[in-house]
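Crash report, auto-generated. Payload:
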Amino acid sequence: MKRNVVIVGLGLIGGSLAKAFRKYTDCSVAGIDRDESARVAALASGAVGKIGTEEDLKKADILFLCLYPKADVDFVRKHLASIRPGCLVTDTCGVKSRLCPRLAGLAKERGFSFVSGHPMAGKEKNGFAQSDADLFRGASYILVPCGAPKQAVEALKGLAPKLGFARTVETTPEEHDRMIAFTSQVPHVLACSYVMSPRCPGHKGFSAGSYRDVSRVANINETMWAELFLENREALVEELDTLTGHIAEIRNAVAAGDGAALRALLRRGRLVKEGLGE
Amino acid sequence: MKRNVVIVGLGLIGGSLAKAFRKYTDCSVAGIDRDESARVAALASGAVGKIGTEEDLKKADILFLCLYPKADVDFVRKHLASIRPGCLVTDTCGVKSRLCPRLAGLAKERGFSFVSGHPMAGKEKNGFAQSDADLFRGASYILVPCGAPKQAVEALKGLAPKLGFARTVETTPEEHDRMIAFTSQVPHVLACSYVMSPRCPGHKGFSAGSYRDVSRVANINETMWAELFLENREALVEELDTLTGHIAEIRNAVAAGDGAALRALLRRGRLVKEGLGE
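Recovered output after restart:
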């Protein structure tokens, strides 16, 4: 059965999903974006079969929300009457604890299914121009069922490998946000903090892979990330405090010239990494 | 003129230098290592033409010290009588401020030339088994002249492209150590501190490039890095304090829910990175 997919927000993630659906499935794809140049580019490149209208929303089997968290909720509220019961609605946001109850509430109210999702893929740069049908190749796809019917979760699990994902992981909003604070948000805070050093502008000739790795994601979309950080305030602050506590332990061992304590701390890090087989 | 090169310490860096000399130059290469298995492997793989003796040291045109900082100084002290005036002695240590005056002093005493060097290349794992003739391909080679005659510095500059380096950079011990604290030592402290989070062991399925990048070098050789950190105590502590100060600014904006301050901080990071054309 050929399914009707509507994708709202044709940035890096939405654009890549559109391209992956068109390249690897037989779903029809309609795209919605408030930015005209994104719409024109998506249509011209064949990433979407058409620009989505209210009528497309009404016929949608799957609705992918690929905006920022608050804009996703606003979109669903605004178009609630057009989302038919039976539609599978999902999002791609990087934080879940505040978003999920809101969208799950609207799902219950209107009778559609809502399963939250988070494709663990990205790039240092954003926008439709960066989108790629193979962005998700090998990546994890985190699913947060939010009380949706089992067949809705299974539908996304079935789509995942077609879109290129290597695996799906099911979790709760709270566990998702704690883990993402660690795996994704902290590295972005670090990258920005790191390049603020007065030494940074002179790094060339003195740097190699370590500099490149830590600084890579400093080229941040501050509007999006500020919203994601603030939506995950408690978990992110806790994780940053954990990190700076560990940095302080190493810093203090260095400052005290305490080689034995320093080696023990570095060894602790090495054993964690080795224990993960990495 | 076929030069006699002696390489002391056949680990990742020494082993890679040996292989690069053998593959890309017509120098003869003798290797010295206190570990028999490294000597056997180096000889068997052809990375060295022979195992170095006191006689080889006496004939050396270039002596590469590829041990830890203190061991490099100890080696030169112990074999001082065998290093002929006219020999070019260089090291590959990651810190310079304490090492350089010691080796420059011995150079003056004995009449050889000492130019300190730091190949900006490495791997997450150490030892001869990891060595690679192409480890230095595209990397920077930092040179610290330490008052050596100009022709000694020029000799290393001339060798650099043959060994694969993309560029050489000349600097002072103090500037080297300040820059390395930022570009290399801080990322290693970060990687170890980061993986100490209680969230780390459960990261799989929730992580992507950001986790991989920040944690990459946590697989640390704690003996070597503790020595490097302690040899660069002041600069490293200062750089860590700079970093944690910047992390605290972002952390506090998140904790206060101050979106404007948060966006301004993230924007500051982005502009630095963009300004470098990265």
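Post-recovery validation: The radius of gyration of chain B is 21 Å.
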